[in-house]
What we know:
The protein is an alpha/beta fold. Helices cover 23% and strands 23% of the residues. The chain is built from 12 helices and 25 strands. Strands 1, 2, 11, 12, 13, 14 and 25 form a 7-stranded mixed sheet that branches. Helix 1 links the parallel strand 1 and strand 2. The longest helix has 18 residues. It is globular.
Amino acid sequence: MTQHDYIVIGAGSAGCVVANRLTQDGETTVLLLEAGKEDTKPEIQIPLESPNLPGSEIDWGYFSQPEPYLNNRKIFCPRGKVLGGSSSINSMIYIRGSHHDYDHWQSLGNPGWSYLDVLPYFKKSENQQRGANAYHGVDGELSVTDIQAPTVASQRFVEAAVAIGYNHNPDFNGLQQSGAGIYQLTVKDGFRHSAAAAFLVPILQRPNLTTLTGALVTRLLFEGTRTVGVEYMHHGQPHQARVNFEVILSAGAFDSPKLLMLSGIGDAEHLQKLGIPVVVDLPSVGQNLQDHFLVPVAHQIIAGLDPAITNPVAHQVIAGLDPAITSNGNAEAGLFLHSEGNLDTTPDLQFFFGNILWISPGKTLSGLGFTVTVSLTHPQNIGSVSLRSPDPKDPPIIQMNFLQSQSDVQKVIKGVRIMRQLFDTSAFAQFRGDEIAPGADVTSDQALSSYIRSVCVSGYHPAGTCKMGTDPTTVVDSELRVRGVTGLRVVDASIMPTLVGGNTNAPTIMIGEKAADLIKAAGRV
């Protein structure tokens, strides 16, 4: 048995940040436990390989239950099983969400989480290629850069959006979110800059930090309601580690509630049925699951055009030599807008554009093409995470409930029609081929609705299952302390009361930054 001041469970986007910040004090000892491997897989570092990482050996490879509103399809729910967590397998898009998202969090009973409160934490992490200003920092560890060589088609996407009335927005994380532009990525010197690369690798030699990979935490240890340590499996053997001050649970929106429940914190009836002793009856654990979803609109490209329109395949070039592989490829350009056309309202639609012919998971088509995916910034689907069994090695039961709201379907239909209008502009006339998804003959609301339900997939942004707030549906308070026990915090996307309007990696890193200050402020108690 080992003894540490703090134990951090999960070396993902938040856990790497917390481990970094806590060990800045040389007197503070931290044990960082990661169930996955080291981030040595070469493809992790090549941005253009990002679409090939979900489903690989560094992914937990979760699937939902049959989804009742998606023709009972099981939805693929990848999560990084590697140092850096999902920041090592994602598309590297750096998006913070709308200013209103964080003001809304504060209005729900979470003081200190308004946009003005969290902006300094975004800036603290950031090393912004374009320089510092009111919205961006340059002294942080995380490299945020422009795509070196966005494709012609991606630039045309922005031009076409402007042509149909949307503004050009060079900075989705600045004064406003609405408009079209090229996404910035967490890339450094042409390579992926994951949370592990940014926050963990540079500090691995700190003598007060112990990092273990392949360490699956099986349960938290309590004396009464005081968290005193963890039990974990490493190299097939059980181990225990004791904590002097706090355990920080940063295992993500699926595995953080799973571990709470395995440890006796959750709905008492559910736990008792599985024979798990109840520490705290907290029915909200695993509830409030929220996630973005994606619906593709795909076109062929007319053959014989300049190959610069499309990116080369990553394995045909050498990393660091061809700027094309420093792009994520499948989501270079984006657009935020409101489906009702109100420019003064928080966007409710987000679009991702890239040079890949894609119509559904596992169905990337051969030939030249481009795809835009339609996503709602704040969908109404509310799902859940629960235990399949008391065995820590079993995956959790995930229910997404995508498209349970017909109003969400109607917004996606509007999004598809806006994209058709955009692709019909002169900007795409040079190389636009046939629409292969949904297909030019799919025009009515009913036909589009059927298509949407048949292809809708996760945007890989699960959140909310350890909700922060003050009401009975919450799991943690505004300082991320788990209700009913002491010495335990949750620090990851699961604490989001509501989903942010955009990709979730940057907000999760921000949560790690703010949590580290909250933990330090609590002192050694």
